Amino acid sequence: MCDFPSFAFRAVVCPARVWSTYGMGVAPLVQTHWRTGNALSHYRRILRPGAAATHFDRNHLLFLLREMLRIRRFEEKCAELYSAAQIRGFLHLYIGEEAVAVGSMQALSTDDAIVATYREHGHALARGVSAQSIMAEMYGKQEGCSRGRGGSMHLFDAATRFYGGNAIVGGGLPLAVGLALADKMQGRPGVTACFFGEGAVAEGEFHESMNLAVLWKLPVLFCCENNLYAMGTALKRSESEVDLCLKATSYEMPAWPVDGMDVIACETATQRAAQAVRSGAGPYFLEFRTYRFRAHSMYDPQLYRTKDEVEEWKKKRDPIATFDARLREQQLLTDDDLKRIEDDVAAEVAQAIAFADAGTWEPVTDLTKFVYSERSPS
User: Fold this and answer.
1) Nearest to residue 106, comparing CAs of 142, 144, 59?
2) In angstroms, rounded to a whole number, what is the distance separating the alpha carbons of residues 354 and 306?
3) What's the distance, Cα to Cα, between the start and end of the chain in Å?
4) Strand pairing category for 220-226 and 255-259
5) What letter does residue 285 receive in the DSSP assignment?
6) What stretch of H or E contains 258?
7) Please, are residues 67 and 267 in contact by the beta-carbon 8 Å criterion?
8) CATH code, domain carrying 165
9) For 347-369, how does the pLDDT look when each residue is reduced to its tens digit (9 = 90+)?
10) Residue 376: inside a domain, yes or no?
11) Which of 122, 124, 136, 330 pairs as cysteine with 144 (C-beta 3.0–4.6 A)?
């Protein structure tokens, strides 16, 4: 296993704002800090399981399971289509991290804005962007959500306030600050949720964005998806301080870690953080501690981790399998329920592929379209 977090706790100097709220899928370890050790064991010690499934309506729980399965099956099919050269360019799969997108999106309203990374298929699906328009986009067809011009890394949908899909590491952070500033200046009630990986914390725009968001008290919810390896480098090899919440609190921003493999913990934490941001408390930071089961991209040989490590995470921490088990334990899920969900998801994915296959290529005459605005200033 990788050396990520630790059992060697030490006192934190900046404190009260770190992990100061219980009941969010976070262990009551205020003023503690981790360093090195077994990652799986760490997750169990630092992050207690999310709220009992019985605290939620059964229909909602089955919806969460269905949404995670939608993302998993959609992306599994994308991997097949990529190998068949139906999808080209780059492809970054979200498999293993589904609980973060599904759980967090439940806490966000239609007035809120979403900014994501290039690993954003799951976020787009969970936000409500149709599987058909996403698949058509990855095929490069003009029926796609970005007219076939963006591909896998540049999904965009104004109707759902889904603003990318950004291929530059950390590139979405200043965009999120700008969107939040616009909402604040115009008196709109929205929150801007900005998703980014832990690799982005090494970028200058991360620090600039955090600083400005606090200085201007902007309604931004920073959602860091820490999957331990960024593009292919273990966190401890790139950051001298591996507790990412401390980086946020250094800017006087409330922050706490969340079990990113637990969909209930993700929803609960995001709900409370978004509520605080919406109330005018300024920006918040959530570190979703998660793990991707697939390579960084389809071209990644994964030399930075072992196959045994990946298999152990799949066996012990798969967010879908563990949630399935919890629901069954509480007699909230049956084999018939699961079959019905799987059949519905399979049909949706098949329809998305058929839609993309039937899509059309943008004509060459449109090559320069959108280079300049087609509307004259009023």
Assistant:
1) 59
2) 37
3) 61
4) unpaired
5) E
6) strand 255-259
7) no
8) 3.40.50.970
9) 999 999 999 999 999 999 998 98
10) no
11) 136
- Into how many domains does the chain fold? 1
Q: Per the domain annotation, does 206 fall within a domain? A: yes
Cβ atoms of 99 and 266 closer than 8 Å = yes
Phi, psi of 278 (to 5 degrees): -65, -30
pLDDT tens profile 311-360: 999 999 999 999 999 999 999 999 999 999 999 999 999 999 999 999 99
For residue 358, give the DSSP letter. T
pTM value? Answer: 0.85
User: Residue type for 334, please?
Assistant: T
Domain containing residue 344 = 57-351
- For 13, the 3-state DSSP assignment is coil
Distances (CA, A) of 209 to 170, 245, 278: 10, 15, 18
Query: What are residue 81's phi and psi, to 5 degrees?
Result: -65, -30
pLDDT band at residue 296 under the 50/70/90 scheme: confident
pLDDT tens for residues 266-295? 999 999 999 999 999 999 999 999 999 987
Nearby residues of 27 by Cβ (< 8 Å), 6 or more positions away: 19, 45, 46, 47, 48
All residues at 6 or more sequence positions from 275 whose CB lies less than 8 Å from its CB, including other chains? 107
Helix pair 58-83, 263-276: axis angle to 10 deg:
110
